[in-house]
Amino acid sequence: MKRIVVLGAGESGTGAAILAKSKGYDVFVSDMGEISPMYQALLDKHHIAWESGKHTPTQVLNASEVIKSPGIPLTAPLVQELIAQGTPIISEIEFAARYTRGKMICITGSNGKTTTTSLIFDMLRRAGLDVGLAGNIGNSLALLVAQEDHEYYVIELSSFQLDNCYDFKADIAILLNITPDHLDRYDHQFQNYVDAKFRITRNQTASDAFIYWSEDPVINREIARIHPQATLYPFGSSEQNVAYTDGSHLVVNSKPEVTPLRVPLEELSLKGKHNRLNSMAAGLAAQILNIHNDVIRESLQQFAGVDHRLQYVATVKGVRYVNDSKATNVNSCWYALESMTSPTVLILGGTDKGNDYSEIDELVKEKCHTLIFMGKDNSKLIQHFGGMGVKYISTDSLHDAVQAAYQSAHDGDTVLLSPCCASFDLFKNYEDRGKQFMHMVRTL
User: Fold this and answer.
1) Cβ of 392: how many Cβ atoms within 10 Å?
2) 41 and 143 housed in the same domain
3) I want to staple 105 with a disulfide (CB 3.0 to 4.6 A). Which of 69, 172, 255, 296 is the partner?
4) 128 and 206 belong to one structural domain
């Protein structure tokens, strides 16, 4: 019997283990950290052997194949041993795709993935399709395939998840943008990160679709270099694209034989330049899947957005508080600041991933009267922004950051949590950071 070892017992690892068990493999799960009680219970329910707090080499190195959780880097010593002995290492996404014939609509990019993924899922569900939502958005594709296989899957894919995909193929691949992120994971080589993102086009043929932002110079350079085989569907600001804005409407025109979709910009439920781009990408995917324009229009007008992405929290003494905890990189913060229409107090900071903060310099000067740094180590933030002439306050906790924002903001201002950084210095994840922020705001 083929032996599958799963490294990491989070959402993806546990889902992969359950799918492997259902297919008759000898399965063992190993996690260097503590496995949460919820996942322990799931593994026990399916009679899957597991260990936590360690990797036992004799239990791992005898694997026929290893499914590696995306959070584990290839540089981990045990992973290096597996590579050295020639053991195949794949991702949960790669493994799950072997056992479903569902159409794969896959979304990646440095920013906008969750919003676009959720919007496409909303469109497909409104159209009455049998669709599952999976990937980096929080649901294990493998678990869905094991328990409730669907005809369509809308999958948010991080670069980490794409790293160990080899035979996996997206029927519709969407690449929203590429800006420097996770460079600590990619030897501080931007091209390595770019290569990971472009793996979403791997194995595509002319019958598949590649939707991309035509005004991203990195994407354009790579398209010219590698010549993707899929049919190209560019979106952007000019009418040379198959989705664009004409000044007053968002237009989606993926199929010449179909009447173009036109939605007045003021009717879009998601506001801001970045969300127009997300809406174009989602509309194209839906049109390619033959979803009626009326359904797409309804979704674009009614979709409520996603938690922790420019999420309105409350107004306290005339000050609006906005939770953008999902802004874990500088470019994402740029989009948040670009959408601000009132004087802003910006809360930022956390685990730096090799960030270049100069990208937001002009918007900080234009939009912000106060910066509040929140993290265990704010030295890089102070060094970069300290001489800019914008008031700053350094804190070492979210509680102190919110209190400082409360004291600094004036009637008509916006307090924006848009950290630019990962959350792992003070929080479990960006969701934990966002939830704590909202709780603290509501108790002001």
Assistant:
1) 18
2) no
3) 172
4) yes
What domain range is 292 assigned to? 94-302
Same domain? For 231 and 360 the reply is no
SS3 sequence, 322-359?
EECCCCCCHHHHHHHHHCCCCCEEEEECCECCCCCHHH
Model pTM score: 0.82
Do residues 388 and 428 both lie within one domain?
yes
The CATH number for 60's domain is: 3.40.50.720
> For the residues of 43-78, what is the DSSP string, one character each?
HHHTT-EEEES---HHHHTT-SEEEE-TTS-TTSHH
Give the residue from 69, 90, 111 where a domain finishes: 90
Residues 46 and 171 in one domain: no
Residues 167 and 65 in one domain: no
Angle, to 10 degrees, between the axis of helix 273-288 and the axis of helix 113-126?
Answer: 40
Instruction: Report residue 216 CA to chain centroid gap.
Output: 18
Return d(Cα 303, Cα 74) in angstroms, integer: 38
Residue 15 CA: distances (Å) to CA of 43, 48, 215: 9, 11, 37
Question: pLDDT per position in the chain (444 positions), as tens?
Answer: 799 999 999 999 999 999 999 999 999 999 999 999 999 999 999 999 999 999 999 999 999 999 999 989 888 999 999 999 999 999 999 999 999 999 999 999 988 999 999 999 999 999 999 999 999 887 899 999 999 999 999 999 999 999 999 999 999 999 999 987 666 676 778 888 899 999 999 999 999 999 999 999 999 999 999 999 999 999 999 999 999 999 899 999 998 888 999 999 999 999 888 899 999 999 999 999 999 999 999 999 999 888 898 899 999 999 999 999 988 889 889 989 988 999 999 999 988 877 889 999 999 999 999 999 998 889 999 999 999 999 999 999 999 999 999 999 999 999 999 999 888 778 888 899 999 999 999 999
Please give the tally of structural domains in the chain: 3
